[in-house]
Amino acid sequence: MIDRLIYATLEDLPRVCRFYRAVCDKQATDRYTPRWHYGIYPAEDDLRAHIRRRHLLLGLEGGGLAAAIVLLDHEDEEYRGAAWHFSEKTHRVCVWHLFAVSPLYRGRHNGRNMLLRVLRLCRQRGFRAVHLDVTKGNDAAERLYTGLGFRFVEEKDVFYEDTGVMAVRLFEFDLSKLEEHPMKDLSWFEANEQRIPKNEVRTRFAPSPTGYMHVGNLRTALYTYLIARHNKGKFILRIEDTDQGRLVEGAVDVIYKTMAECHLDHDEGPDVGGPVAPYVQTERRPYYKEYAELLMQRGHAYRCFCEKAESEEDSGEFDRGDDPCRCMPQEESDRRALAGEKYVIRQRIPHEGTTTFHDEIFGDITVENKTLDDQVLIKRDGLPTYNFANVIDDHLMGITHVVRGNEYLSSAPKYNLLYEGFGWDIPKYVHCSPVMRDAHNKMSKRHGDPSYEDLIAQGFLTDAVLNYVALLGWSPRGEQEIFSLEEMIEVFEMSGISKSPAIFDIEKLRYFNAEYIRRMSAEDFARVAEPFIRRSVKDPRFDVAAIAALLQQRTEVLTEIPEKVDFFDTLPEYGPELFVHKKSKSDETSAKEMLSAVIPAFEALECWDDEHILGCMSALVEQLGVKNAKLMWPVRIAAAGKAVTPGGAVEICRILGKDETVRRLKLGLAKLG
Question: How many alpha carbons lie under 13 Å from residue 305 in its C-beta half-sphere?
Fold first, then answer.
C-alpha cells in the first residue's frame, strides 16, 4: 500500500526519465521503492512519444512493476491530463489527476461521467480494481467516490515535497461490479440535476394528509417558513402521501386552509407549481424506483425477497441478523425479479465503522454503523418509504435546510449514507425537540390534546397561536414575547432553538390570546367577535360593534363571548337576592327605592346615549344622596339579570335601548314586591 508520495513536476523531467529507464530495465533501487511518483502534465518532446503510446512508466508500488498512462492525445478532451498508476502484481490501477482536469470544475456531473468512463476503460484493459486517493477533508470528492461505489480502504500520512506531510484517504472500486452492474444511462439523472435551483436557501414543509394539523406540525411549518423568509429564500410545500393506509379524505384541503389562515404562503407547491414539480409524492413515483436501482448499481442497496410482516419492517429494532438476500449474487437477484417475485429494496448499511452527522441544534452525533438496520427503501407495492422518498425529494428540490422532529435523529445517519451513496451534498438538519402535554407525555390527538383546528374552534386567534407556538422551543433575544409574523421573520435565528422539550400550557396561550385581543383595533375585534356574539344575540336591533366594544378588554378567548352577552336577547330568570351586594351597599329595600326613582327619570329622557344616561343617573345620585354604586348596581342587575356582565349599567342600557331598558327595570322592580 502507499508508503510515501513524491510529486514530480516538469522541472523533474531529467530525474523522471532516469527513473523511467530504471523501471524499464526492472532495476528498481531503494530510492524508488516503495515510493509512488504522481503523473505530470508532460510538455517535453522526449516524453511525448511515451505519452502517445499511453504507457509512461513512472513509479513502483511495493516492489511490483508500476506504470502511469497519460492520455494526452485521447480523442475525448475529458481524458487529457488524467494519469493512472497500476501494479502488474495486483492488477490494481490508481487514478490520479482526475480531479485536476477542467471538466470537474465545470460541474460535478461532468466529473462523475468522466470517472465512469475511466472505470469502463480500466475494466476493458483487464484491471480488477481502481484505487483513488484524496486529501483528507475533500468531502466533495469523497461523496463523488462513494456515490459511484468506491469503498474506503485506509487513511495514512504521506509526504509531499512541496507541502510536507498530509493525511490521504484511499478508496477502491471493485471493477467486477462494473461487469455485473452495467452503468445506467445517466442522462435522465443529469437532467434532473440541472433542474435543481441553486444559490438560495430552500426549505420545505412536507406534511402527510392524515386529517388535522397538530401543534408540533404547525411549529415545524412555522420554523421552516421563518428560516426561508429570514434568509430571503424559498418556502416549498410538498405533500408526502406515500403511506396510503393513513390517508384521510379532505386532509389536503385542511393543510391548504391552515397554511393560508396562518399566512405561511409557499413559493412552490402542488397548487402553485414550481421548477421541480410535481410536489406530491405519489405523483413522483417513477423517480424513486430509478434512484433505488441506481443505488443498487452502486452497491448501496439490494433486493430482498424475504417475507416480512409490516410490523417487523417498521419495528426499528437494531442488531438484526444479516438479511439473507444481502449477499445474494446479482444474477440470482435479477433472475428472481424478472420472474415476477415480489421484493423490497433495502439500503445496504456498512457493517464496520461509524457515521457522523451534524445537526444545527444537537451538533455532531456519531453512531456505530452496526447499530443501523438495512431499512426498506422501496416497498412491495413499488412506493417508497418515507425515509427514502424524503431524501430523493429533498435533493431534487434543492432543499438546503431540513426541519423535522427529533424522533428522526435516529434515522439521520441512514439519510447521510444515502446522500453519500449518491454523491450528493447533505442539507443542514434542524431536529426540533417535541411539544409535550406534561413533563412525561408528548401531545397526542388520541389523548385529547388540541390540534390547530381545535384551538381556533376554542376561540383562539391564529396570530396568537402562531406567536405562542413559535416560543415552544425557540427563545428570541431580549424580553419581548409578543411578535407579529413580520417581526418573527426579522429576528428568527436557528441558534435560538432549544434542545429541551417544550410543554404546551393552555393558560399561557390564553394570556397570549388576551394580549392579542386587546391590541386589535375596535373594527378588527368586532369582525372576529361577530360570529360568537350572534350565537346568542340574534336580535338585529342590537349593534354588534357596540357589544364588541364591551367585550374587547374583558375577553381571553372568543368562545367566552356567547355566554357573556346572552342576556341581550333574552333576560335570564333571576331572584331578588341578586340585588343584594355588600360592597355597593345594595339590598332589596334600597334596590326597590333606586329602581322606583330611575324608571320615571329614564322614561323622561329624550336623548338615549351614554352621556345622557350617565347624566340622568348622576343627577339621581346627587338628589338621593347616595353613592354611584348603590344606584348603578340594581339598574345593571335589572337590565341584564346577571351579576357579572361585560360592561356597566350605562353601556348595557344604551345598547338595549330606552324601551327595552325601561321594560326590564319594571320587571326587576316587580321582583322586589
Answer: 16
Structure confidence at residue 443 (pLDDT): 82
Describe the crossing of helices 139-147 and 412-422 by its angle, rounded to 10 degrees: 80
Site of grid cell 341578586: 578
| Gyration radius from the chain CA atoms | 38
Q: Which residues of 455-479 are buried (b: 16+ CB within 10 A; e: fewer)?
A: bbeebbbbbbbbbbbbbbbbebeee
Residues 6+ apart with CB under 8 A from 187: none
Tell me the three cell numbers of residue 372: 443501523
pTM of the model: 0.74
The confidence score (pLDDT) of residue 154 equals 81
pLDDT band at residue 28 using 50, 70 and 90 as cut-offs: very low
Asked if residue 253 lies in contact with residue 416, where contact means CB atoms within 8 angstroms, the answer is no
For residue 581, give the DSSP letter.
Answer: B
Check if 370 is active-site.
no
Residue 203 CA to residue 404 CA, distance in Å, equals 11
Q: Among residues 442, 445, 508, 658, which one is catalytic? A: 445
**CA–CA distance, 552 with 167 (Å, rounded to integer):** 69
Cα separation of 128 and 93, whole Å? 8
Length of the chain: 673
| Contact indicator for 497, 432 with CB cutoff of 8 Å | yes
Contact predicate 348/300, CB 8 Å: yes
Task: Please name the amino acid found at residue 569.
Answer: D
